[in-house]
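Re: the pair you flagged

First of the two:
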Amino acid sequence: MQTLEQLKRGELNGCTSLKLSAEIETFPMEILDLADTLEYLDLSANRLSELPADFSKLQKLKVFFCSNNEFTIYPEVLSDCPLLDIVGFKANHIGHVGDRAIGKNLRWLILTNNMISALPASIGDCYRLEKLMLAGNRLTALPEELQHCRSLALLRLSANKIEILPDWLLSLPKLSWLAFSGNPCSRTPNSEIEAPLISYDRLKIRNKLGEGASGTIYRALSEEMLQDVAVKVFKGDVTSDGFPEDEMHSSIEAGDHEALVKIIGKTNDSSESKTGLVMELIPQHYINLGNPPSLKTCTRDVFEPDTQLSALQVINILTSISSVANHLHQKGIMHGDLYAHNMLIDEDGKTLFGDFGAATRYERDHSTFSNAMERIEVSAFGYLVDDLLSLYASAEQDTFYSALRALEESCHLPDVGDRPGFEEIESILAEIKSQNLI
């Protein structure tokens, strides 16, 4: 991170990337002196509430983050930056987005945790839009024009006030990762399914294992069970995916499956009013299959350069994930984040699938709706197939490769209803395995 003093002294002239966080209340006009080179600008965690009228001098700007500031109106001047590809205004106080404010070139727009009750019709002009983050607002509906965004692949709508999902949304050809928990249109938790309550006082917290948007995971000793467990303590705030309590309910309702981390119970930290999940520890020999998408890939995971998978590993991963996805949808749960970075594998490809932060519970009574929910997630599974084929160690596109490529193509048929369901996918994978193609 650079400093405001460096900027004012001219030491940053010629830079392509700038990040400033120093309780700034007024936009530093010296930033405009970087117009010839600046491509990435991050002014998050300041106290800004407006941008200058000539912000558009930054004609080469591609990425602009301005989260955790004091904006109440989405700045219209951003639409005058022709190359702007990614914009993030998470956790401001934005209540109004003007009709000409959203640039047509945007590929990724983050408006999480604001006060937006309506989006402008002009968002339908964003023909490149792939990723739209709207969780934690006051939306009651989506503009019909959004259906023109045919490239939209990831949509976060959780923690809003949406009564009904429009039919056109469920037919968008590229939509693969959808979350809408915490809305009237999502299903309430099943009151008959609960997890045992484990006193937080009986958990001896050892060390931090990891941290995500919704919570922190610790290793702990359970005094009741005399064994080490994993404890995920939720942060309590709305995240990019929704409410932590929805994650907890979905995790519990998911039940038992060999590809899911087993939930032992839930816990309360009465001293800090935090809730959490108690889970079995994941064996140490499991490793992350992938890494989250980058700014460049937008909606697609990235992998370590030397990652290679055998046919056995590929088929075992896909068999596990298709099975657990079928299991979840039979229970009316859409995971919403079916990605390699949420999967852990061992050397044989045995897989554990986790992170229910974007999960949505939905009603299965209406077959057309429930079929669409499942087949939206089938599209995400298709991208997983594509990713694994890119890591397949064989130097040639053999019969095994061709069979999986055909499956991937069927998962991405533009008519959502023509795609196979997860039960059919399980059968296809079993047939590939039985034909000794691995």
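Second of the two:
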Amino acid sequence: MPDNASTPWGLGAGLRYGLLGLPLAFCALPLYVFMPNFYATQWGVSLAALGTLLLALRLFDAVLDPAIGHWVDRLAAGPFARLLAALVSAGVLLALAFAALFHPQVAAADALAWAGVSLALTYLGYSLLTVAHQSWGARLGGDAVQRSRIVVWREGLGLVGVVLASIVPALWGVTPTAIVMAVALALGLWALSGAPRPQARVGAAAPLPVHLESRQLLAPWKDPAFVRLLVVFALNGIATAVPATLVLFFIQDRVQSLPSMQGVFLGLYFMCAALSMPLWLRVVARLALARSWLLGMVLSVLAFAGAAAVGAGDAFLYGVVCVLSGLALGSDLAVPAALLAGITARDARRHGVYFGWWNFASKLNLALAAGLTLPLLGWLGYAPGARDAHSLQALTLVYCLVPCVLKLLAAAALHYFFIQMRNGESYAT
């Protein structure tokens, strides 16, 4: 495949580049949806301890991402074989650590420590692959249509991975999940080795003095547009991560559905997100990026406000909530990446650093969601399996109200920074 950004972006190129998004998304969902429930219900780890662990590891992992992004920038400037070897090594680490996370080989008393070590290694491999994959796509360049098409392939195949991850663990268990993950990861890396490659920047890999290296890492924070987008992205991301962290507890204890329905609800949610992406592209064409994202936030608030009315046995009503919130998720997947692409295109030397900070924010969202909401639930009196009125009221409050408040704050910031402010208009169209 030619090493340039002008290669026609057809079906073959899209699959070769985007396929790695499938196992990465497949990996991510169990980490923040199934893992807390797995260790709480099957290994007896307290919610407070899990929340503290997830917060600490996510924060540590997130701090590494900008440095990982800078390292990826340097790798991308050198021989392609060196970059590919680093990606394969990260893939092996990720597959092994992911399998270990869901197969503890210790007594119940040591389960938290096992989770901590295996989760830290999983995060490391995942971060290396994610930042490298995203910055690879950004380096391919092209016009707005080309950049959007690249993002759609990555996010679209990622949604396929999410749908699989929402079904496989619930129906088949953790061992098949680890096997599917490893096979998909190997296929994704093999496909990426033949994907269109961006041109290496001559001389970019030369070592820099320490003070200049630090400037490279902090450069995105001097970009006002990036900082504003990150504020909106963080508020919105936490709002999305809170119900994702608590969804299995809500299904089990509030909806009280059969275990097999967990995969159905999650699959419905993510399939609606995938099916809505062409619709959101049409909305963007009419309303522009920022207003389209704002519409998605409003739809999400309405969905989670409706979830407060769900009671025991209301599977159909909760299915409607999944459909509406899934449709809203499509805007979260399509719009922020397009806004970010417009910003990073102005600083082609630092794609990896920008995406490193972007992933820092993503992981901080998940860390805060798990690290704050799980202990908050325990403090409010909820424990997994509790179905008394007080416990269910606490669960509903955190699952429904907290996301709505955060989404409204994100919507206000989005409107002010990217719709009302004139200097944000170039990124909102």
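The domain at 11-196+216-428 is CATH 1.20.1250.20 (Growth Hormone; Chain: A;).

-B.
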